[in-house]
Design goal:
This protein has 194 residues and is an alpha+beta fold. It has five helices and ten strands; from the N terminus they run ββαααββββββαβαβ. The strands form three sheets. A six-stranded antiparallel β-sheet has the order 2-1-5-4-3-10. A two-stranded parallel sheet has the order 6-9. It has a two-stranded antiparallel sheet with strand order 7-8. It binds zinc ion. Zinc ion (ZN) binds next to helix 5.
């Protein structure tokens, strides 16, 4: 299953693919049905630093219309590790399309922290990288390891912290290093021509 978004020249959502509703409902994103057309990128992406990276990706795509950029990122469901592949292409009039598909999936015991239907939340926040899905718990660690350290792998553990998204240091270096944010020309390993 793939899901697609289109953003206009002002980075506002201008359209979605036919699978949008099914994908959102299957992944706990019922709040995104119907799709929030007209909303800006910043309203979709919770972390300002992550938003900067996505703006740069859209900008790079607009500078090279017709070139497909391929990005790989991690986006787990509660009971599955998932590697996603996003293809970013600028179409006409500065509109950029992002088509995201599940590349690899691996079942695992459910991680309650990632389940949006678990209602109880503490006031605590846990930072998750929007690229590699690691969480910051004494450094950046895999989400399962982070939950193990914080004793959050059992639902009976009590209320869960809320997730706030950002980008970890190594992903920032890998992605922004290739995005010409500071005038460089190279593309990062994670961002290659499709
Ligand atoms: Zn990361």
């Amino acid at each position: 299953m793939s899901v697609s978004w289109r953003f206009d020249g002002d980075d506002r959502l201008s359209g979605v693919g036919a699978d949008w509703d099914d994908f959102a409902l299957a992944n706990g994103g019922g709040g995104c049905v119907p799709p929030p057309i007209g909303r800006t990128l910043a309203e979709f992406i919770s972390g300002p630093d992550l938003c900067v990276v996505w703006r740069a990706i859209l900008g790079l795509s607009r500078r090279e219309p017709g070139r497909a950029l391929s990005l790989t990122y991690r986006c787990d469901s509660p009971d599955e590790r998932r590697i996603m592949t996003a293809t970013v292409t600028c179409q006409d009039r500065a509109e950029v399309s992002i088509v995201s598909a599940i590349g690899q999936r691996q079942p695992r015991p459910a991680v309650p922290l990632l389940d949006p239907t678990v209602p109880d939340h503490t006031g605590e926040m846990i930072r998750m990288c929007g690229w590699c899905a690691r969480v910051k718990v004494d450094g950046w660690v895999d989400v399962e390891e982070g939950c193990r350290r914080l004793d959050l792998l059992e639902l009976e553990s009590g209320p869960l912290p809320r997730i706030t998204h950002g980008i970890c240091d190594s992903c920032r270096a890998a992605v922004t290093g290739g995005l010409d944010l500071v005038g460089g020309k190279s593309l990062a390993a994670g961002l290659r021509s499709a």
